[in-house]
Amino acid sequence: GKTLLTLINDILDLSKIEAQKMEVSPEPADVKLLIKEIKELFHHAVLEKNIRFILEMDERLPSVIVIDEARLKQIMLNLTGNAVKFTHKGFVKISTLVLNDHNGNIDLQIAVTDTGIGIPEKDQQLIFESFSQQSALNTRKYGGTGLGLAISKRLCELMNGKIDVESTPGEGSCFTLTFRNLKYADEIIEGKTPHSENLDSIDFKGSKILIVDDVSHNRQLILAYLHHYNLELYIAENGQMALEMTKAILPDLILMDIRMPGINGYEANQQIKTGDKTAHIPVVALTAAVMQSETEKLQQAFDGYLRKPINKQSLIKEMIKHIPFNKTVNPIADQEETTRAQTPKNLNIISQAQKSAFRQKFADKISDLTTMIIIDDLHELISQLNHFAQEHQIDLLKNETEKLEQAVDSFDVKMIRHCITIIRQMFD
Ligand code: ADP
To answer: Which residues contact 387 (CB under 8 A, 6 or more apart)?
Structure first.
């Protein structure tokens, strides 16, 4: 189903471009941030494949560049997705290079390099054609539609740019985007840039957020994004659980996936909006849909919607519309962001290795506890969880263990069960 949806979306994009209905809208954008977010989105895949992800930013790259951010992201997702898919050892690297700086305009190159399987010379032009893949490749092994590069190439041209490839079979590939004469501003352009606020300095005053998604990776991504904003985070892995938790904790905001087995996002939202105590709670839909008709339906039913893959900036900006917040002054936030992006360990997305270490140590203890609760055992468990969180530097687990400890101290059985469920889900 997922493959078919990707294929349909790709064909729609391509038809739109070919019918000259695809418009590009250049606006001030933070390209550095966009690239960091792309890295974050592939964090899981890279960990699983045991390859490295390197960012190499040209220091001269201005904070704000006028470019169509959504289209650039689409191209970068395709190139990076391919690089990760076709690389089995070594690294994937995104680098930026400012070629020229003249009168407030720059020429910019963004390259995605990998040490993957490479592309034979005879296929290097062919792969930019619709439905084309390397001739000798096993299509079943790698999947794909053969449309991504065709779309990327055309989008690039619409943006007055070009895309080139250099590759050696067995050694790797490098796809380079070149955009000429991009307007830029060293300082943020007032009121225009989507990143005009330092969103890292926002404090959501302890609001309760319920994240509903049936896919564990999606939940973890949002948990990792929202970790530093003074929020109480709760997760539900299906519509039924979302409804029960909504009634029990009365969250200040719900982030709701649409396609879920059982009760889907629309139905869950409908029930929340008709419940006496829950009708006022804003619900923001999380969706992969791109069709105009679906977008209109979402706008009518929900208080807001966000397109997947969710990026941190748009998530925070959407949340600001629905829950109270303060802005705190945090001059080192930017610095922290860079360090975090470079050290995957601190990203707080839990790796497969950490998950299996956790399951080995805690599987029995935690499954018993959801049915039977013995306070003494819990104290012992809490100290082991704290130790594990510290040893593996998992802040998410540390926070959840703190909540569990408070629940145990106040004999709040419902809360104890809830915390344990969340901890279990983190390592699913
Ligand atoms: P898809 O990945 O869906 O097949 P694309 O148009 O994005 O479609 O890519 C077309 C083909 O180009 C791929 O199937 C693959 O054969 C080749 N290709 C693209 N990127 C790479 C890469 N980084 N390394 C090796 N081959 C690649």
So the answer is: none
